[in-house]
Design brief:
Elements lengths: L2 H13 L2 E11 L2 E12 L6 H9 L7 E7 L9 H17 L8 E4 L4 E2 L5
Antiparallel strand pairs: 1-2, 1-3, 3-4, 4-5
């Protein structure tokens, strides 16, 4: 079981269904640059890393890492799509200004191993 799969199971056990914000990043030297992003509604914890990477392949982007951020509606559970779109734009803007924001979520490499962005 990958670190991604462990995280997903633990997150789902803690919150139940949730919105996940997904940001593909390119890592070159000391730079971490967001490439593409989206959100999804996670209604279960049975997704494997292989299944996730198959979905990410649809982005047709050359990525080195993927950040996941959890979002919950005010009363718990997944966010409404309009609210999630707005939150995704906030995350994109904040990440462009400060890639260290990835450490507030969960950042995984292409093998599903947890990573962290370090200051130079």
């Amino acid at each position: 079981m990958t670190e991604f799969e462990h995280w997903l199971k633990a997150q789902f056990a803690e919150t139940g269904a949730f919105t996940v914000f997904i940001v593909l990043v390119r890592i070159t030297g000391d730079a971490v640059e967001p490439q593409k992003s989206t959100f999804a509604q996670m209604i279960g914890d049975d997704m494997t890393w292989a299944e996730m990477t198959a979905l990410l392949a649809g982005a047709r982007s050359n990525w080195d890492g993927v950040g996941f951020f959890v979002g919950l509606a005010h009363d718990g559970g997944p966010m409404a799509d309009d609210e999630a779109r707005s939150k995704l734009k906030e995350i994109e803007t904040e990440l462009r200004a400060d890639p260290l924001l990835l450490n507030r979520g969960r950042l995984f490499d292409r093998q599903g191993r947890l990573m962290e962005v370090e200051t130079a």
